[in-house]
Amino acid sequence: MEDTFLTWEQTQDPQGCNMGPDRYANFSRDPARTPMQWDDTFNAGFSTALETWLPLNNKSAQVNVKLQKQALISHFNIYRTLIALRKEESILHGNMTFHLVDDGVFSFSRIRSGSTSYLVVINVGTTRRVLNFSSSAEIAPFATVVLRSVQSTDASTQPG
Known about the structure:
alpha+beta
């Protein structure tokens, strides 16, 4: 879900209302509190009322939980996978090693003998990066991408 623009008249949050019509948008928490977008039905499946407390996001038919569940790569499924990975032995009890890459890339591995090992690479920069971790002795020479961001468009990084 994305924040929804609200006019001064639509604002309900006391924190925003107390700032007045010229500054409400900088202080209101309402843009992040619009109705949950469950599906593409009336009121995005949130309510059967004729009007909701705050207006729906105008993208609710294209961005909703139902579509996120159906998509192979979605924020919903990324979080579902991350929750499942938290139960892995190497994530729970594995040795953690930080791999120095550079200011734009953060990386670490979790390794536990007899368990699947994981390498986490996070590009916090604004450009695509190609990295080679093959010289790192503790990382296996064969790897499968388990999870990638929804912004990645590289077909070679598709999970599975």
